[in-house]
Amino acid sequence: MSKRDYYEVLGVDKSAGEREIKKAYKKLAMKYHPDRTQGDKALEDKFKEIQEAYEILTDSQKRAAYDQYGHAGVDPNRGGAGFGGGADFGDIFGDVFGDIFGGGRGGRQSRARQGADLRYNLELSLEEAVRGKDVDIRVPTLVECDKCDGSGAKAGSKPTTCPTCHGNGQVQMRQGFFAVQQTCPTCSGKGQIISDPCTKCRGQGRVEKTKTLNVKIPAGVDTGDRIRLSGEGEAGEAGAPPGDLYVQVHVREHKIFARDGNNLYCEVPLSFTTAALGGELEVPTLDGKVKLKIGPETQTGKMFRLRGKGVKSVRTGAMGDLMCKVVVETPVNLSSRQKELLKELEESMGKESAKHSPKAQGFFDGVKKFFDDLTN
User: Fold this and answer.
1) Does this model's pTM top 0.70?
2) CATH 2.60.260.20 matches 258-375
3) What angle, 0 to 180 degrees and rounded to 10, lies between the N-to-C axes of helices 18-32 and 41-57?
4) Which DSSP category does 136 fall into?
């Protein structure tokens, strides 16, 4: 199945900046994360597709490669700039057309491939993301074989030059007008033959190992942020440099707070009487409870800002705010006497009830005008 356009996957334009891409990813990741899709295979695949698109479009080199060459430019199986190391776009097209334009690669020496980059998905609570913490993670990877020091050859022996490609890693085949270079079938493109392989790694030069790494999570990280651990990816072939490990952060949904950038949002229930008469309201923050002064005649939906009670920016250090929206609750389970008191209150307002309910009066005036306009 052909891959969808990465910009289409995230629902952004090709001119979108990193901030817009991150915002789109965060929205989709929250919607399709496996924690919320409950084992739906189709939605899990969609989540992986979203993550892949985000990985490419937030990396300037990979994005440039994708914009120029499409999926071929970031396909690790074709030497692209994806998760398998650096790109050599000449390899994609040059082998076929090089000889036509005099740019043949017959003398090119094979290069040991750099180790692949790895990704580790790390889930954090909102509190952990806001405050930061040290986390130990276990990562399965390929490391250099300590018995042969990555050569793949048994102690006392060493690799020999491939007799088929003479160390180039590729062989040339002519098909009429075209001269096509292909991976050498004898050495699989390595340019060397190991006649007496290491017994531990079986000639691969690398062995599987699960590493335990300590990752320092800075305060203020958010869903979509990545932490790069240089050199902690897979070991390279034949002594080539290792790849990197990218720790991908996902912050779990919180029961009370919603986060948008460095600001936090929450809804706080407000009693009928406190809303009418004013008073104090106890509201939660990530650092504990605080008192919020409520003015008289407060309407439901009013937003209160608690400055500096949000999240500290991981990049600038600026503190966000906590935005509290009050929701006035209608009294329930009233006694007979309480109901009588409310009726007395209503009767005491009499003809001046509109004075005490300005929003309701404005609404009904608008309704009346609407129907008057229809009949005229």
Assistant:
1) no
2) yes
3) 170
4) E
